[in-house]
Amino acid sequence: MVGRDATDEVTALHSKEAQTHMQKYIIGRVHGRWENFLPPIQGGVFRTLTSRDVDDEVLSAEEDLTSSGGSTPQSVFDTDETRDEVRLRRAGNDTPISRVSSLSPSEPELGQFRSAEASTAHAISSDLSKYPPLDKRSQAKIAKKYRQLDEKLQCEGLYDCPYGSYAVEFVRYSVLFTLFLTCLYHSYFALSGLFLGLLWHLLAFTVHDAGHLSITHGFHTDSCIGIFVADFLGGLSVGWWKRNHNVHHIVTNSPEHDPDIQHMPFFAISSRFFTSLRSSYYDRDMNLDTAARFFIKYQHYLYYPILLFGRFNLYRLAWSYLLDPAQAPRKGAAWWHRYLEMAGQVFFWYWYGYRTLYLSIPTWSSRIVFLLISHMVTAPLHVQLTLSHFAMSSADLGTHESFAQKMVRTTMDVDCPPWLDFVHGGLNFQVVHHLFPRLPRHNLRWAQPYVKEFCRDVGIPYVVFGFTRGNKEVISRLGEVAEQLRVLEECRKVAAKDLVEGRHSH
């Protein structure tokens, strides 16, 4: 967000108290409309104060030389190409893929870049034809309407948490917990694991609510609720989740920046991943290595089987977060959250790993069955987490696209009857949630008609599919990318063969 107007992002993700606190850090005010720059992390070029002074001196010298009929040493100045590139970047028109295409890849890699470029160009062209234009007036209108909608939802009381709904949730949790213990006591280990997995599935939605501070709207209170449910009861890390999820909400479906779609080597939702993109979140290259080539070519078949083991990966991510001094907060108001989470992890592995899995289940075969069932039952949660984004656009339309348009463009809702909302946990209203992430999930259904009206008003397509159709869209997208990779592999083999034969012919 460096160099960009983040008004809507800040408003959507931060409480009124946090926004008021931010006023203390104002260093200046902009007169007129702010012109967005391309952030440095995406290749934007910004002059420092020192370099600006040097530029002024150079320009002064250039004027003196010009007036005296002298010539300017070219090594001192940017070339025309560099100047044009800087102008493009500062205007926000340079995309990561266009920069990649300016490189000189080796012959075997050339096809990958060209394939990614063609696919990206097609995706951008498709989005530009379906969504409102990116001119300042059109996007300013969308931003204004979005802010008016936010005020309307506040006036309607939809930001107020309906605590009665959580009382109903607590009854569900209690029933599942009782069934888990009862079956465990009577040695029905498979059934016991089933009920525990269902409990974890539903509890994850409360963690999601707490992470967005949409329960009590208090930072420490909701954080403690999230830590108790995620760490103590589920062995996961709410701190990791918040760090990951907050980034996802800002750069939704960005191949380089959104960790929620960076699943190499197992999944790729865009041919952009064929170019071994660098993840700004993980600070590493997402290489298209041998493993990635295998998994991606069959990803539409492996999608559900891999998601069966998704919870095990969350354990790994939890500990990598808690043990990494660069990730978990060590200063500020949340410094003690990390230690409370660690205590929660110890407690979880004591009650689940030792008391339940080891002491309460007598044989290794029964332990393995219990372990696998309790974890695989949570797979629908991972399906829901990917369903709303995998089939949607991952194209970057530049820095001038409004926050509201980007959220709707990269997200879809899932249609289901109201009585099934508790199974989806609000994730069936992801468009509404991405526009208003602090809105309590039990109010998302009531907010949906307002969002649909807003989309009709500003001309943004609102995508909503049934659960089955949505899954078909995801599998179709994965299949398309898999086919692109297969075709690319065949082309590379033919090109390599021709190259070798061509060399031999000389």
Automatic annotation (TrEMBL):
One of its GO terms (molecular function) is oxidoreductase activity, acting on paired donors, with oxidation of a pair of donors resulting in the reduction of molecular oxygen to two molecules of water. This is Delta(8)-fatty-acid desaturase. The chain crosses the membrane at residues 175-203, 302-323. Residues 189-464 form the Fatty acid desaturase domain. Residues 60-111 are annotated as: Disordered. Residues 66-77, 95-105 have a biased composition (Polar residues). InterPro entries: Cyt_B5-like_heme/steroid_sf (IPR036400), FA_desaturase_dom (IPR005804), Fatty_acid_desaturase (IPR012171). GO terms for biological process: lipid metabolic process. Keywords: Membrane, Transmembrane, Transmembrane helix. One of its GO terms (cellular component) is membrane.
